[in-house]
Amino acid sequence: MPSKAILALLAGVLTVLAPARLIAAELRVLDQFRLIRASMEVGAPSAVRITLEENLAGASLILTNEDGVAADLVQVTDEKGSCYFPEVPPGTWRIIPDNAQYSIELVAIVALSPRNGGS
Question: Which of 12, 16, 24, 28 is most buried per CB count within 10 Å?
Answer without folding.
Answer: 28
